[in-house]
């Protein structure tokens, strides 16, 4: 009897693993109510629907699986199954994504979506497998804005000398260095405390992130710099991907598309409605930015990007017709 129970148990387990059914671990850096959380939920529901409940997603929000760089490493070694992440640290794994991190490259959401959803975006996604990662879809973090605890920032001169946390991203660091800001690369989970303790004066993120991470508690000034569009990605571990049959792969891709659309919708809503909320929470908002002066001050950085990536690759994105 006892043996039979064990045997039955083992067989059940065997069957489960043969069929590949599993609850997958999906990590992200923000709260469940954020654009990443909304996306993960939409993706999970669609995936369960398309696979009749065979594949489900368990969410690990708020950096529970580590910072974005650590989570991407987790995908490579198979300790994490899925990640919704900004492109912040991804260029360290797939250098071509750095192209999308260039400041003032995308004019607006439409331009960004057309490029990322078209052949250029696909070409970058195709680079992931040879770097030990699977990229399912481009999502959205949004246009980034500068916050700080020292003073209102309207011009590059106002920003000079500030110590600003940047993502672990060479393209972003170069831009800040060029305008005389001291860039301090740091993983997102350390950021709130660093702002609170004054280790850095400021940071930059989309409105939805500033809200979700409660930065008004530690930052007084918000400048609507919109200095760079920040894409997001839905990434997957090859160790799970390689077990899927063609139909399942299609289901994951379709579910990721639904997740990405939900992410863009929520990030956009936050960008529209969030500034008012941030004012209510005590932030002083600078809206009359001298964007021309920022673009002008960034010229030496643009020259460096051209050297690094080739002007043609940058222009292909900048001048993309849609
Ligand atoms: O992905 O690290 C960052 O500033 C990111 O924008 C944030 O974690 C959301």
UniProtKB/TrEMBL annotation:
One of its GO terms (biological process) is transmembrane transport. It comes from the Bacteria. The keyword Signal applies. GO terms for cellular component: outer membrane-bounded periplasmic space. It holds the Pfam family DctP. One of its GO terms (molecular function) is carbohydrate binding. Keywords: Signal. Residues 1-21 form the signal peptide. InterPro entries: DctP_fam, TRAP_DctP, TRAP_DctP_sf. The keyword Ion transport does not apply. NCBIfam families: dctP, TRAP_S1. This is DctP family TRAP transporter solute-binding subunit.
């Amino acid at each position: 009897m006892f043996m039979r129970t064990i045997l039955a148990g083992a067989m059940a387990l065997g069957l489960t693993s043969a069929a590949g059914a599993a609850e997958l671990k999906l990590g992200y850096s923000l709260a469940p109510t954020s654009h990443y959380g909304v996306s993960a939920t939409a993706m999970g529901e669609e995936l369960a629907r398309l696979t009749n409940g065979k594949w489900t997603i368990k969410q690990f929000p708020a950096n529970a699986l580590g910072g974005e760089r650590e989570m991407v490493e987790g995908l490579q070694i198979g300790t994490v199954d899925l990640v919704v992440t900004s492109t912040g640290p991804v260029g360290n794994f797939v250098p071509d994504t750095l192209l999308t991190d260039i400041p003032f490259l995308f004019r607006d959401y439409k331009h960004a979506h057309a490029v990322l959803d078209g052949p250029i975006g696909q070409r970058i996604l195709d680079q992931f497998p040879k770097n030990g990662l699977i990229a399912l879809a481009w999502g959205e973090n949004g246009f980034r804005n500068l916050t700080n605890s020292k003073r209102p920032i309207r011009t590059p001169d106002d920003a000079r000398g500030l110590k600003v946390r940047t993502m672990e991203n060479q393209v972003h660091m170069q831009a800040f260095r060029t305008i005389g800001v001291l860039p301090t690369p740091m993983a997102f989970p350390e950021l709130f405390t660093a702002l609170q303790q004054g280790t850095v004066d400021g940071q930059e993120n989309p409105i939805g992130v500033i809200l979700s991470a409660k930065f008004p508690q530690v930052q007084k000034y918000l400048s609507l710099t919109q200095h760079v569009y920040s894409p997001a990605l839905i990434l997957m571990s090859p160790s799970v991907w390689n077990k899927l049959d063609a139909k399942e792969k299609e289901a994951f891709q379709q579910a990721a598309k639904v997740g990405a659309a939900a992410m863009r919708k929520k990030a956009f809503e936050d960008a529209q409605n969030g500034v008012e909320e941030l004012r209510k929470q005590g932030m002083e908002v600078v809206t009359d930015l001298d964007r021309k002066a920022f673009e002008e001050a960034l010229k030496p950085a643009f020259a460096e990007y051209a050297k690094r990536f080739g002007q043609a690759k940058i222009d292909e994105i900048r001048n993309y017709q849609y």
